Amino acid sequence: MADIERRRYPRVKTCNLISYMAMKENGKVTDLGMGRALNISQNGIFLETPRLVFADYISLMSVDSDNNLIEIKGELVYSGTDSSGMFGNGIRLQGQPHENIQFATRLVKVFHSRKSRFTPAMAALK
Fold this sequence. Notes:
The protein has one helix and six strands. By secondary structure, the protein is α+β, with helices and mostly antiparallel strands. A hairpin with a 5-residue loop joins β1 (12-23) and β2 (29-40).
């Protein structure tokens, strides 16, 4: 039987480096680190990290195509491990809808601009 998609918005595959600051509900910082955004939608992001993230909330930071800092806060709703030992973290974005969409759009644009820039160079190496 096929899995039923329960997400409200479709996910877009991406691969962006993200800095994060994990926090408990009281605002205490529990972790700082880097991860990879593997997919994003207008209300959530899947972040792969090398270690388990213990947090209620998380602040996500990256740069856009113009090297401007972009940041959004989210709620950690899922953490699990895969066969490679990496951890997958499902994060529900906590900004206003237009802020969530702007953050997601800017990340996807960065991914596609880097992908198109490096694809010809990678093909030349083969």
